[in-house]
Amino acid sequence: MAVILDRDSERWFRPAKGQFQIIYRLGSDHREYQPDFVAETADAIYMLETKASNEIEDPEVVIKKTAAITWCQRANNYTATNKGKPWRYALIPHTTIAENRTLKSLADEFLSVELEPKK
């Protein structure tokens, strides 16, 4: 994934704990979620999670995905009124990551939802 991001993004990083403060609930616990990668392109900022293909439907992974989508929607509400780039979230199975793939092709295939600002 790092090879793809080096080639196809303007900049990217691996978030540190607490950087995004995405909190999700699992049972009675409140936990913090850090996505694997954040990458900026000319037209969007992508929050990317790579996961073993057999874990994509794991209940905790689904809960984290929902929390990240909510975070991106809130960020988009802000950026829509402040001329920022839209945020997009993609959960990508590890079996689809290959050096010949592009960030755009992976994002297009695994974009969770088109994240438009709420009105």
Report Rg.
14 Å
Q: Please state the overall shape, judged from the principal axes of the Cα atoms.
A: globular
Uncertain spans, ≥5 residues at pLDDT below 50?
A: none
Distance from first to last alpha carbon = 34 Å
Portion of residues in beta strands equals 25-35%
Helix-residue proportion = 25-40%
Number of strands: 6
Question: Could you provide a short overview of the structure?
Answer:
By secondary structure, this protein is of the alpha+beta class. The chain has helices at 2-8, 59-81, 103-110; strands at residues 11-13, 22-26, 29-33, 37-40, 45-51, 87-93.
What does this structure look like?
The protein has one domain. By secondary structure, the chain is an alpha+beta fold. The strands form two sheets. A four-stranded mixed beta sheet has the order 1-4-5-6, with helices on both faces. The chain has a two-stranded antiparallel sheet with strand order 2-3. 32% of the residues lie in helices and 26% in strands. It is globular and about 40 Å long. It starts with a helix and ends in a 9-residue tail after the last helix. It is built from three helices and six strands; from the N terminus they run αβββββαβα. The protein has helices spanning 2-8, 59-81, 103-110; strands spanning 11-13, 22-26, 29-33, 37-40, 45-51, 87-93.
